[in-house]
Amino acid sequence: MHSRQTIAAVIAIAAASITSTSTFAADVADLYKGRTITIAIPYGPGGTYDKYGSTFARHLGKHIPGKPNVIVQHRPGAGGAKAMNYTYNVARKDGTFGIVPLDAAVVNQLIRPDKMKYDANKFQWLGSSNQTNSVLVVRSDTGVKSIQDMKNIEIIGANSGRFNSGYMNPKLAMGLLGLKGRMVTGYKGSSRSILAIEQGEAQMSSFNWLTWDSKVPHWFEGKNPFARALLQNGTEKDPALPNVPMLADLVQEKDKPLVAFIASMGPIGRGITMPPGVPKHVIKALRKAYDHMNADPAFEAELKKRRLRLIASSGEKIQAIVRDALKSSSPEVIKRVRKVIFGGAS
């Protein structure tokens, strides 16, 4: 009798679970049927944030119950801070507004808390489709052929603002290695910064290698290339750049924790996150849809066509990376990084 009761209880629990799952699926389908999801891009059009985001928009909707329309919305400003703050504090919390987040989301929160009005761990991360290193590129006609040459030749860099990896990585390298240079901000996205280098307004910038390779591959061709990749920062070398030195290998031992802290940006990569407040069952459905998109051959084919890589990570994995990075960053490291990059400004 006891075993029959146990079996009946198991069946009842299983049935309840199936009913609950079906109800959630129906709820999500009802939520999204005939509606539109907006994905914010924190920079202007043309960069890898935009390219990944627009590719997400073309493929994600078909994997979400209810098959909503998905569009992108460019929200540039303050190096991406405006879009991040808007998504966290102002945007709809019903699952119809998300963002391709800054890879510097965690770092920004800790070293610029006065500007970053969010808690990165309370964002609800759906997943990522790439991982990135920051790669410093310099025009060849500057006379700079190696990173050591920047100790004697001052270089002007172009970037959008002080809150992104393309600003912080060069500034960190300059401070730790004694390099000459200054960064000019205000360029709206990587395309404008690259144009500034082509036109001679600037001689250097730092983006992930995919940005350089997809936008200006001709810069690096031939015996006398227009520009050279001189330095990279990340958790490990980019497979396309085996001969470009890592910042961590050039700094003193006492400075390696600072480099590792900034390098934590890379694994967040290019993906989507939703603001806090979106119901958990909706996030569960969106994470499942994002995983299915990453596994979709049509999605991968379009990325390849656009010269973009697919290195897939689940929402749960990215959430754990963000949580661990926030927990493991000591006040001393944050203080030193802030001083090197921003001159002590908070």
Q: What is the rounded Rg?
A: 22 Å
Could you give the count of β-strands? 11
Report the top-level CATH class of the largest domain.
Alpha Beta
Uncertain parts: 14-21
Residue-averaged pLDDT: 90
Instruction: Count structural domains.
Output: 2
Q: How many DSSP helices?
A: 12
Can you summarize the main beta sheet?
A: 3 strands, parallel
Amount of helix: 40-55%
**What oligomeric arrangement do these chains adopt?**
single chain
Strand order of the largest sheet: 2-1-3
CATH topology of the largest domain: D-Maltodextrin-Binding Protein, domain 2
The outline comes out as: globular
Structural class comes to: alpha/beta
How would you explain this protein's 3D organization?
This protein is α/β, with parallel strands linked by helices and 346 residues long. It folds into 2 domains: 195 residues, 3-Layer(aba) Sandwich (D-Maltodextrin-Binding Protein, domain 2); 131 residues, 3-Layer(aba) Sandwich (D-Maltodextrin-Binding Protein, domain 2). It is built from 12 helices and 11 strands. A 3-stranded parallel beta sheet has the order 2-1-3, sandwiched between helices. Strands 10-4-11 form a 3-stranded antiparallel beta sheet. Helix 2 links the parallel strand 1 and strand 2. Helix 5 crosses helix 12 and helix 8 packs across helix 12. It is globular, with a radius of gyration of 22 Å. The termini are far apart. About 2% of the residues have low confidence.
